[in-house]
Amino acid sequence: MSVEDLTQVVPDPLDEIYPEDEPQFVPEPPKKTWIHTASSILLNIQKYSAYGFLGFYGLHTASTVIIPGIGISQSACQDVFEMCRNIYMAPLMEPTMVYATGIVHIGAGLALRILRLWAKKRPKMKETDIIIKEENRDDIGLGGIGTIFGLGFKKSWISSTFPSFTPLTFSGYVLTAAVAYHVAKMKLGPVSVDGDSSLVTLSYVTHYLNQSPWGKLGNIVNYGMLALVSWVSFYHTVSGLFKYRRQFSLRAKKIAYGVIAFLTGLSVISMTRLRHWDLEIGFLGKQFAKYLFVV
C-alpha cells in the first residue's frame, strides 16, 4: 500500500472509545471495627484531659521548680507559691483542673492498654540493636541519648524488654506511682490531721526533706521520690506534648531532651535550696511534723 492509497476519515473523539465515566473497580476501604472506634475515642479523651491538666501542672511547676530554681528569695518564692495555689485550689478549679482531668487521663490510658492487649497479640521477636529510620515510631520514644549526637534512632530498652510498653506509656505508670506517694505526703497527711492542706507552703517541703519517721533513710527516700516525680513528669509531659503535636523530627527530639534536662536541673537546684532553708518552729513546725509522721 502506498501513500496515495490512504484516504481521509472523519475523526472520532476518544471519549467514545474510552469513556471516562466507565465504571472502574475501586477496592472498598476496610471497615472500622468497634475496637478501632473505641481506641480513637479513648485516645481523644486521654489527649484533651492531658491538655486540661496542663493548667495545674504549669502553675505548680512554675511555683515549686522554676521560681526557687532560678534563685529568687525565699519570701518571693513563698508569695508566688501561694498565689499559684490560690488559683488551682479554688473551689471549682481543684476538682476539675486537678482531680477530674488526672483521673480521666489515667483511666483512659488504662482502658486503652487493656483494650489493646485484648485485641493484639504480643510480638514474639525482640529488637535491641537495630538502628531505626522511622522517626515517628512509638517504641523509640525520643530516640535515645544517641539521637543528640546524630547516631540515629534506636528501639528503647523498655520496648525491647516489655514489647507491650512504649517509653511514654511506661513513664506514665511510673509517674502514677510517684504521684500517689507525692499526694500521700503533700495532701493526704495534712488533710488527715487538719481536714485540709491550707497550711502547706514551700517550708513544708523543707520539713519533708529533713524529717521522716524512718530517720535519715526516710529523708533519702523522700528526696529520691521528689526527684523521681519531677524527672518522670517532665519526660512524660514533654514527650506526650511533642507526640500530640506530631513533632517527630530529629530537631524536635533534641529540643525535647533539652527542655527535660533544663527542668530537671532546675528541680535539683530547687530541692537543694529548699532542703537548706530553716525549719519552721512553734505551731507550724509541730503541725508539719504531724503531717509527715501520720503518713
UniProtKB/TrEMBL annotation:
GO cellular component terms, semicolon-separated: mitochondrial outer membrane
Domain Mitochondrial adapter protein MCP1 transmembrane per the UniProt entry, residue ranges: 56-151, 179-245
One biological process term in Gene Ontology: mitochondrion organization
Keyword annotations of the record: Membrane, Transmembrane, Transmembrane helix
Any matching Pfam family: MCP1_TM
Classification via InterPro entries: MCP1 (IPR039960), MCP1_TM (IPR012472)
Keyword Transferase among UniProt keywords: no
Listed transmembrane segments: 97-115, 164-184, 220-242, 254-274
The protein's name in its UniProt record: Mitochondrial adapter protein MCP1 transmembrane domain-containing protein
Species the sequence originates in: Candidozyma duobushaemuli
Upper lineage: Eukaryota, Fungi, Dikarya, Ascomycota, Saccharomycotina
